[in-house]
Specification:
Elements: H1 2-10, H2 13-52
Length: 54
């Protein structure tokens, strides 16, 4: 059991997967914040265009 734990501490694959997961979460967070911030402006623009059409 101790040998397996020592192998896990030397294994870099788990750390790499964790890093990729954190990067993906960060990118998803940026996308959510961007869409939330710009969503109202885009909606207002579309409403203005729709009202201007005859």
């Amino acid at each position: 059991m101790l040998t397996r734990l020592l192998q896990l501490t030397r294994d870099d694959e788990g750390a790499t997967a964790l890093e990729y997961g954190l990067i993906a979460a960060l990118i998803a967070g940026v996308i959510v914040i961007s869409v939330t911030a710009l969503g109202g402006k885009v909606s207002t623009t579309f409403d203005t265009i729709t009202k201007a059409m005859p």
